[in-house]
Fold this protein.
Amino acid sequence: MANVDGTWDTVTHSPMGDQKATLSVVSAGDTFTGTYAGALGTTAVSGKVDGDKLNWTVDITVPMPMTLSIEATVDGDKLTGTVTAGAFGSFPMEGVRA
């Protein structure tokens, strides 16, 4: 079982430029809770843990209301994933343990 818990400094490479955010993860079995804090504020998140994979959603209001669907894989102190923004497509995300 991967150690997904902790604080992660993430960057999503979006068409609007690199979006930095801090993800905190506290796992409990096959679920996790935490926060996702970026330039637009802090949002509580909860999602699923499957081995070394995390899946969660974030509701945003800027630049327009939408739900981001995020999947990330933890490998030691690195995190790589994909942020899917509805009709806007998917963008790569990476992070390191803070």
In short: The mean pLDDT is 93. The radius of gyration is 12 Å. The chain has no helices and eight strands.
